[in-house]
Amino acid sequence: MTLRSAFPPLDVPDVGLPRFVLGPADELGAHRDRTALVCAATGLSLTYGQLADGAGRVAAGLVARGIGLGDVVALFAPNTPAYPLVFFGVLSAGAVATTVNALYTPDEVAHQLRDSGARVLFTWRDGLERARAAVRADGVRVGEIVLIDGPAPGTAGSVPESALSDWLADRAAPAPNAVVRGGDLAVLPYSSGTTGRPKGVMLTHRNLVANTLQSMPLSRLGAGSVSLAVLPLFHIYGLTAIMSMALHRRATVVTMPRFDLDALLGAIEKHRVDHVSVAPPLALALAKHPAVDGYDLSSVDVVLSAAAPLSREVAEAVTARLGCTVLQGFGLTESSPALLGIPHDRPDVDRGSVGVLLPDVEARLVDPATGLDVAPGEPGELWCRGPNIMSGYLGNPAATAEVLDADGFLHTGDLLTVDADGVFHVVDRIKELIKYHGYQVAPAELEAVLLTHPGIADAAVVGVADANGEEVPKAFVVRGPGGAGLDAAAVLAYVAARVAPHKKVRRVAFLDAIPKSPAGKILRRVLRAHPAPEN
After folding, report:
1. Model's pTM, two decimal places?
2. pLDDT by residue (tens digit) across 301-346?
3. Which helix (H) or strand (E) segment is 267 a member of?
4. pLDDT digits (tens, 9 = 90+) for 236-259
């Protein structure tokens, strides 16, 4: 049975995301001088007028370089006021933004640049050397690196390098005249889907406009609101539920380039933040960390948790401590991301749930073994359909067909239940992905790294719970002929040197053989229950 949202249907305009969020620069009116963005670390701020004008200058600079409709531009940077300025500038030129994790190693950056076909790369000082190394990799097409936070860095790289400040000062560049429609490709974030290496998720302007509207029940944002952007804007959660939604409502967004609990608490106090978007580990800190008591957090009105399930106990503890409304959302990169959520005006909805279907979302709960809808109250894989669902994975029709069926339903890989009131609870995950602090970690990617070690004959990675109940990657390793002396510390160090910090293996166990099916598929459920001691 197909389940439908109880919200009224949306009217999704057929416009590009920049026009929907910011509108024409000359029509900002009273909002032109309102603060749009402020950096918690430096105090640098942008008004809505400066944001819109700057995005236009970025678009003009891209047009002057021959970048336009369908071309890909990479944004490899942490949260700063320049991030949305560049992001909306790229989209205003008709180009596609591929957002790169700011913690990535050069090899990881190079994979995304190569796979997406990016032609220009925006980065920041602390990422410049990694950007230069990535651009030198075989198959990467980037022809220019642009530094967003300083003067032109010089000629040390293999391609020309310029500064965003020069782009913003250039009034001679031609104004962009791209006509961007809802069906045009807008963003290529990278996701592992249900398994495998990260793949480019093709999200259109319509997907993102629709999901910004669909996410509105998850906040009380308005022109007087202040939203904290501590979660990364390169992640779809940050792009839609924080950046696009807050700016569309003319709120002020306080950006944090990196996570530090005291800095976060200080930013809330200083800027009187009323909307805080978190992942469960940060919610746990707000609930229990003693540092919270040293700050005035009375301005906080709404805390939205997503990226992984949040327990009812932690949600209630945050509510009691901060005196705020705690909401929960659920989604995927492939759905732009929000599918489910607890509306801000529904105190009756269980705080340990992921809420109800958001506007214009249809769903089924399906038995993975039979493909049939489950009986009422029984767990089933969540399939969803709506205007926010991706058009597919870039250049990968086989992977697309695995998760997106002919009827337009996205197969999420998550087991959920729904009660008679339409409230959903997450039960388990049937896909292989590990969620470490809200970040996706693909076992296959770590296994590929492990198998490059000369002392490892075979390896498998699964997610296991740590002492706090958080999922962490655990590697099962089979020593090869040259690995007699290989220990856990060496395995941990080998992987850590080759992947972003959130992907690091946290535990290691050694086996004589990796359990596999007759077809050669790793039996991950067997490994999760395996009693092998950790070394």
Report:
1. 0.86
2. 999 999 888 889 889 999 999 999 999 999 999 999 999 999 999 9
3. helix 261-271
4. 999 999 999 999 999 999 999 999
Burial status of residue 481 (CB atoms within 10 A of its CB: 0-12, 13-18, 19 or more): exposed
* Amino acid code (one letter) for 243: M
Residue 335 maps to a domain: no
What is the rounded CA–CA span in Å between residue 201 and residue 115?
Answer: 11
Asked if 112 and 190 count as a contact pair (C-beta separation under 8 A), the reply is yes
* Cβ atoms of 535 and 487 closer than 8 Å: yes
- Domain shared by 159 and 27, yes or no: yes
**Six-digit token string for 265:** 């608490």
DSSP string, 432-466: S-EEETTEEE-HHHHHHHHTTSTTEEEEEEEEEE-
Q: What is the CATH number of the domain that holds 442?
A: 3.30.300.30
Residue 407 CB burial class (10 angstroms; 0-12, 13-18, ≥19):
exposed
User: pLDDT for 118-166, tens place per residue?
Assistant: 999 999 999 999 999 999 999 999 999 999 998 888 767 789 999 999 9
The token duo for 275 is 């909307």
Per DSSP, what are the bridge partners of residue 78? none
- What's the rounded Cα separation, in Å, for the pair 180 and 95? 9
pLDDT, average across residues 431-454: 83
Show Cβ contacts of residue 119 under 8 Å, excluding neighbours closer than 6 positions.
Answer: 67, 71, 72, 73, 141, 142, 143, 144
Residues 317 and 466 in one domain: no
In a domain, 394, yes or no: no
SS3 96: strand
Instruction: Using the 3D structure, point to which of 322, 338, 367 is the last residue of a domain.
Output: 322
Quick one: average pLDDT of 449-465? 89
User: Beta strand 35-39 with 252-255: parallel, antiparallel or unpaired?
Assistant: parallel
Give the domain extent around 220. 17-322
